[in-house]
Automatic annotation (TrEMBL):
Origin superkingdom: Eukaryota
Phylogenetic placement of the source organism: Eukaryota, Fungi, Fungi incertae sedis, Zoopagomycota, Kickxellomycotina
Protein known as: Nucleolar complex protein 14
Organism: Coemansia furcata
Length: 643
């Protein structure tokens, strides 16, 4: 089918490299057309402008010279005149003196930005298209040359004062209705967070996501080997930018955070080793701050940015591994924070609840027990109904000091407190944000007033997390011991809610409390029914030995009376083997005797034939000897006769 025309695809699927190259060419072409439009040159479509450039380079046509602007281009205030006036007009953006000083200043800034971002003139555009790839490669080499010098700078915290202020300004910027500045299609790859702020400092959050998408298309890993380092730098920069956005007040919209997290998750696979080392270093820095906060009272131990990064790590990395270079230290940090930190503000409690949710997400598949998360949930639930001054009221497996019990006082639901809304207030990211002031006196003060709505929202979140942990740990052998305190605590809350005027509580919280309590009771009953007390290993009962003699009336020596059949079979087989062995030995001996007799016969025949030959030889020799003696005697007689 190689030469069959009908077997060839009419429109085959493009490879990943071809699709990336096409997207990059499209963005570069769109950027060239945008620059032409800013310069006032005609750029109706991609095909027309590209065909003009190709024709001017191939057929030798002269490109159009830069025309003099006319009065119809920009309106009544267009400046027209000689060369000197043209220079002044270009310096002022081709606008006359009819604008006010403020507008002209803004136009000068926009004009200078456009001129700095634009390319060459129309006469050199055909050469520019040919040198695009060379310019990209030169930029990549320059970034690689500077990466070694900036390696130490990348390890600095992303929350520096100047960068944080610039990021806050960029995050709070919203696109205005009269915003006419067009977003470029090509950007330089940022090597660090400073370059990123310079790149997107003037764009809104939605435009920043567009910038990230275009950067990924321009520096696709299939296009050049140097793009791997650029995308790795971009992934680290976006992680730092996510930490900065998580600290914004008011909070950044959820679609923006989701879009940023999606880009980070896809870029993390480009250089997993470097991204993992950066995340591990972030966990180490957070652990250092938590330890300092434990030694110094009143210090914020966990920031909203730390919680956001941990949520990112739990979604990017494999959390079901037994040991992981990022997840394992993160879980140790979370456990230490939940067990040792004093939760004195709404921000601390909200951070703790989010961290408990992260623990459940990481242990959802492996189902390893994290007792610190359960103890925090029990303590937070008890704070809504128990009195902080009464230590006996806080009975259970969640030991708390007096100072810790007093810190939970802000969650206690009072008798006269009434929820304003009919539905429970869901947890908000604003509860995790730090106060606006950094002074020690205001640092411990919550940024959100803890009203009845907030308290019932915390209670609702605790009940939901408790239900999730019950589903996760149901198969544990120690399920009864872990969740019996929760059963008692839910019963206590159910008993005391009527004292707090049940009609003041949202119906959703009341229903959730009832369903959670019923579900936990059912699970505990099933666990108790399935639990079997420990007992010794089962063995087959042994028969009592009988010592009464057994007599055989017809006893015979040739018969075996062993009651064990297997032993009888073994004995029979042994005798049969011995019999066969003796028969084989006899046969071998007979064969040996026969072989020896035959060999003896052959030897005797050989000896007899040899003796016969020797006799014949001796007889011949004796005859010759007798003849020779007779001749000698005859010769002697002849001599004597002559004498």
């Amino acid at each position: 089918l190689v030469y069959e025309q009908r077997a060839r695809p009419q429109d085959r699927l493009k490879t990943e490299m071809e699709a990336a190259r096409e997207e990059k060419d499209r963005l570069e072409r769109a950027e060239r057309h945008r620059q032409r439009r800013m310069e006032g040159l005609p750029s109706d479509s991609e095909l027309d402008s590209d065909s003009d450039n190709d024709d001017s380079g191939k057929k030798g046509y002269k490109t159009k010279a830069k025309r003099r602007p006319v009065a119809d281009d920009l309106g009544d205030d267009f400046a027209q005149g000689g060369d000197a006036e043209m220079e002044n007009a270009e310096a002022t953006g081709n606008l006359g003196l009819g604008l006010t000083g403020e507008e002209s200043a803004s136009d000068e800034e926009s004009g200078s930005g456009d001129e700095s971002g634009s390319g060459e003139d129309d006469d050199d555009e055909s050469g520019e298209e040919e040198d695009d790839s060379e310019v990209d490669s030169d930029q990549g080499e320059s970034v690689l040359a500077d990466s070694s010098d900036e390696e130490e700078e990348k390890r600095k915290p992303a929350a520096a004062t100047s960068l944080r202020k610039a990021a806050v300004a960029a995050a709070q910027r919203a696109p205005s209705s009269g915003h006419t500045e067009e977003l470029p299609f090509t950007f330089a790859a940022p090597a660090n967070y400073d370059a990123w702020i310079e790149l997107v400092g003037s764009y809104s959050l939605e435009q920043q996501l567009t910038v990230v998408a275009r950067l990924r298309a321009l520096y696709h890993i299939r296009l050049s080997p140097q793009n791997k380092e650029k995308l790795s730098d971009l992934c680290v920069v976006l992680t730092q930018h996510l930490a900065v956005l998580a600290e914004q007040d008011p909070p950044v919209p959820a679609p923006i955070i989701d879009g940023l997290v999606k880009h980070i998750g896809e870029l993390a696979a480009v250089d997993a080793e470097r991204f993992g080392e950066h995340c591990r270093q972030a966990v180490i820095d957070c652990h250092r701050r938590v330890q300092q906060a434990l030694r110094a009272e009143g210090e914020p131990g966990m920031r909203a940015s730390d919680v956001a990064l941990m949520r990112l790590f739990a979604s990017v990395f494999s959390s079901s591994d037994r040991f992981h270079t990022v997840i394992t230290p993160m879980l140790i940090l979370i456990s230490q924070y939940l067990s040792q930190h004093t939760f004195a503000t709404l921000r601390d409690i909200s951070c703790g609840l989010v961290l408990v949710g992260i623990v459940h997400e990481t242990q959802r598949l492996s189902r390893r027990l994290v007792p610190e998360a359960l103890n925090f949930l029990l303590a937070t639930l008890a704070a809504t109904a128990c009195h902080s001054a009464d230590a006996a009221d806080w009975d259970g497996q969640y030991p708390l000091s007096r100072r810790q019990r007093e810190s939970y006082r802000l969650l206690q639901i009072g008798v006269a407190e009434k929820c304003k809304s009919k539905k429970a207030l869901p947890m908000r990211w604003a509860w995790l944000l730090s106060p606006a002031s950094d002074s020690p006196s205001q640092r411990a003060a919550p940024s959100v007033v803890v009203t009845a709505d907030v308290k019932y929202g915390i209670l609702r979140a605790c009940l939901q997390l408790s239900r999730r942990f019950v589903d996760s740990y149901f198969q544990l052998p120690a399920f009864i011991e872990c969740f019996e305190p929760l059963q008692k605590l839910l019963a206590k809350i159910s008993e005391r809610l009527p004292k707090f005027r049940l009609q003041h509580a949202p119906a959703e919280v009341v229903d959730l409390l009832a369903t959670t309590r019923t579900y936990l009771d059912e699970q505990l009953d099933q666990a108790r029914a399935a639990r079997v007390p420990l007992k010794l290993q089962y063995h087959k009962p042994l028969a009592i030995g009988s010592f009464a003699p057994k007599f055989e009336s017809g006893y015979n020596l040739d018969v075996h009376y062993d009651p064990d059949r297997s032993r009888n079979e073994i004995t029979k087989l042994r005798r049969q083997v011995n019999k066969e062995r003796r028969g084989a030995v006899r046969e071998l001996r007979r064969d040996a005797q026969f072989v020896a007799g035959e060999r003896l016969k052959e030897q005797r025949e050989k000896d007899k034939s040899y003796a016969d030959k020797m006799k014949k030889a001796w007889s011949v020799l004796e005859a010759d000897q007798s003849d020779m003696k007779k001749m000698d005697k005859a010769r002697i007689k002849e001599r004597k006769a002559k004498i």
